[in-house]
Amino acid sequence: MAHIHKMYEYDYKTGTIKPKNKKCPRCGSYMALHKKPVPRWHCGQCGYTEFIQG
User: Fold this and answer.
1) Is 6 within 8 Å of 17 (Cβ atoms)?
2) Quick one: average pLDDT of 21-33?
3) Which pTM value belongs to this model?
4) pLDDT computed for residue 54 by the predictor
5) Nearest Cα residue to 26 out of 13, 41, 38
6) Helix (H), strand (E) counts: the chain
């Protein structure tokens, strides 16, 4: 089961909700952050991957 409360942050001053994950530049879906074996952002819809340096 997904922990949906961990995917968004709520700003109490303005009353807005913002997603924590970044959007895919290719298809616009939200990307998943994978930490093992190599740190990377990956889109499950189109397969786009960004590797994190550092």
Assistant:
1) no
2) 95
3) 0.74
4) 77
5) 41
6) 0, 5
Residue 32 in contact with residue 41, Cβ under 8 Å? yes
CA distances from 52 to 2, 6, 36 (A): 24, 21, 11
Task: Go through 22-36 and write b for each residue having 16 or more CB atoms within 10 A of its CB, e for each that does not.
Answer: eebeeeeeebeeeee
The residues spanned by each domain of the chain are 19-54
DSSP 40: E
- Strand 40-42 to 32-34 pairing: antiparallel
Distance of alpha carbon 32 from alpha carbon 26, whole angstroms: 14
Beta strand ranges found along 1-54 (DSSP E): 8-11, 16-19, 32-34, 40-42, 49-51
Of all residues in the chain, the percent with pLDDT exceeding 90 is: 83
